[in-house]
Design a protein that fits this description.
Blueprint lengths: L2 H7 L12 H7 L7 H12 L3 H23 L9 H9 L6 H13 L2 H17 L10 H9 L5 H12 L7 E7 L2 E6 H17 L3 H28 L27 H18 L15 H36 L2 H4 L4 H8 L4 H35 L17 H18 L3 H32 L11 H25 L3 H10 L1 H12 L27 H19 L3
Antiparallel strand pairs: 1-2
Helix pairs in contact: 2-11, 2-13, 3-12, 3-13, 4-12, 4-13, 4-18, 4-19, 5-6, 5-18, 6-16, 6-18, 7-10, 7-16, 7-17, 8-9, 10-16, 10-17, 11-13, 11-16, 12-18, 12-19, 15-16, 16-17, 18-19, 18-20, 18-22, 19-22
Keywords: Cell membrane, Membrane, Transmembrane, Transmembrane helix
InterPro entries: AA/rel_permease1 (IPR002293), APC_superfamily (IPR050367)
Organism: Mesorhizobium hungaricum
Length: about 575
């Protein structure tokens, strides 16, 4: 180890520590590929036969966009928190209120992975410990019920016998209530999910190096089987090529009837592209750990590039194979849509029996825990750096003796316990949370993809360890508006209130930022905030990009509103 690295590792308590290289960030980001399992059924439900193409286009867009993030991350070797923090600095010259919006939206986009992942993992554990029994019309119990209840139909008898034999814990809840467009429930799924969150917290409490080491082991246990599941059905000839045609949208969501390329069809497609972005773009979290890289100049680009290649492979391969084996009717089955039957489907695809199914259930739980750990690591560092830079309340800037931002982690945990109660209620509430979170993610991506060219204009003189080709920066800016179309048209596919709830949640940063900036800091930013750019707060008065950033913001809002008005179901 070099003398410089010795210094890094020995940094004083109270700061994040430089203890990992790009490989560590790669393994921390390895929780992104399993996110395909969160919504593979949901996207099939609105995308139909074109679902595999939606995943392919979405991950390719995400890969192209990542080059913008790789360049701007290199400008800030001493910051953590990811692309939103680096992009916020570009907008600071033009509005101190737009800049924190980027950080806030990225946090509330990523943070719900904890609650959503824990709800699915808890459902798997509940299914293993207290499964719902399966009866048919010929089951002895059903036959006996029919004999004792003359005139009852066979279907009603199956329902009655199943309800009577279902473990009470499946329907138990400490408290449940409806709240606007969603419900919440303190049921068994909630309590199991809460335990899983605490386990994740305990792993990350020991810092990023410990997290990366755990993620490496779990990542290998998850990624290798995912590759097997993606490849084996192709090699064994299980792919039914008829499952990819006709190449048209559905006539209506979650109904297998083919539709047409009309306004309603395009609306469903854009809804699928909207929700896919939440998963496929997620590997940008690999640049959340710049402040913890031993050599940020070289590690930053490698971390996001190789994480992106892994995601491109798995996000194309797994949805393609799923659709080829299961077909549209299989993809629309309730256990696939809500995620609880994905392990059964995986076992069928690799031709496994009961033991293989059990192993794949364990794989699913590990995959979800991997995604949860990735989300907590990235989102907590976004909160931490947002606090250090003066966007968010001061208490979030604390780290423990291991260099872990524990107060930010506790904030994540408490916030997600609230979301977990909603996600545990039903599938409608689950996808409402997902859609609202993704509104934040699209806003973050819009701001940061445009931050690429703003940094080029305002900070073009600053050395870039890695400089993206100009056409990639341009493509990213164009994709920012494409993403705006996805949000405007697609959010309502998942819930009529999702877009407006997302915009409302984004606006909550205004009172939070005003409290930090004007009450806690007296209207001034911390002196160190702009150190990486060699600037002071007085330098912010120079706006080389002129009115272009404002025009961009107005144009983005107009695109969202027009898309929301034009595309209807």
């Amino acid at each position: 180890m070099s003398a410089m690295e010795d210094t890094y590792v020995a940094e004083a308590s109270g700061n994040l520590r430089r203890t990992i290289d790009w490989r560590g960030a790669f393994w921390v980001a390895s929780g992104v590929p399993p996110l395909v399992l969160f919504s593979i059924g949901g996207i099939a439900g609105v995308g139909g036969n074109i679902a595999f193409a939606v995943w392919t286009l979405s991950i390719l867009m995400g890969f192209i966009q990542s080059f913008t993030y790789a360049e701007i991350a290199g400008l800030f070797p001493n910051k953590s928190g990811g692309a939103s923090v680096y992009g916020a600095t570009a907008w600071l010259r033009y509005s101190k209120f737009i800049a924190p919006l980027s950080v806030w939206c990225n946090w509330f986009a990523w943070s719900p992975v904890l609650s959503l992942g824990c709800s699915i993992a808890a459902a798997y554990i509940l299914n293993a410990l207290a499964p719902i029994p399966g009866f048919t019309e010929t089951s002895p119990e059903v036959v006996a019920y029919l004999a004792a209840h003359a005139g009852t139909s066979a279907a009603d008898a199956v329902t009655a016998v199943t309800a009577a034999a279902t473990p009470a814990i499946r329907s138990w809840t400490l408290y449940t209530h409806a709240l606007g467009p969603v419900s919440f429930s303190l049921n068994a799924t909630f309590w199991i999910g809460a335990v899983l969150m605490l386990i994740t917290f305990a792993v990350q409490h020991r810092g990023i190096l410990s997290t990366a080491n755990v993620q490496k082991v779990v990542g290998l246990l998850v990624i290798v089987p995912l590759l097997i599941v993606g490849i084996v059905p192709i090699l064994t000839g299980q792919i039914n090529w008829a499952n990819y045609s006709p190449f048209v949208p559905l006539a209506a969501a979650y109904a297998p009837a083919p539709g047409a390329w009309n306004i309603a069809g395009w609306t469903l497609v854009l809804g699928a592209m909207f929700i896919a972005a939440w998963s496929t773009y997620g590997f940008e979290t690999a640049v959340c750990y710049t402040r913890e890289f031993k050599n940020p100049e070289t590690d930053t680009f490698k971390a996001i590039f190789y994480s992106g290649l892994l995601c491109v492979l798995l996000y194309i391969l797994v949805p393609f194979t799923f659709q080829g084996v299961l077909g549209l009717n299989g993809m629309l089955a309730t256990p696939i849509v809500d995620g609880s039957g994905v392990a059964d489907a995986l076992a069928t695809m690799v031709g496994g029996g009961g033991i293989v199914k059990t192993l794949l259930i364990m794989l699913m739980i590990l995959a979800l825990l991997l995604a949860i750990m990735t989300a907590m690591a990235g989102s907590s560092r976004t909160l931490y750096q947002g606090s250090v830079d003066g966007w968010l309340p001061k208490y979030l800037s604390h780290v423990n003796d291991h260099g872990a931002p524990t107060r930010a982690m506790w904030t994540d945990l408490v916030f997600n316990l609230l979301l977990l109660a909603i996600a545990a209620a039903d599938a409608t509430s689950f996808f409402f949370i997902l859609a609202v979170a993704n509104c934040g993610y699209i806003i973050f991506n819009f701001l940061n993809l445009n931050a690429g060219w703003i940094h080029r204009i305002d900070n073009g003189h600053i050395k870039r360890p890695w400089r993206a080709p100009t056409w990639l920066i341009t493509a990213g800016a164009v994709f920012a508006f494409v993403n705006a179309v996805f949000m405007g048209a697609g959010a309502k596919v998942w819930n009529p209130m999702a877009l407006w709830a997302g915009l409302f949640t984004a606006a909550l940063i205004l009172p939070v930022f005003c409290f930090r900036h004007y009450v806690q800091d007296g209207g001034k930013f911390p002196d160190h905030m702009l150190d990486d750019l060699g600037m002071s707060e007085s330098s912010l008065r120079e706006r080389k990009a002129g009115a272009l950033p404002y025009v961009t913001l107005i144009a983005g809002l107009i695109v969202v509103l027009i898309a929301n008005w034009y595309f209807v179901l």
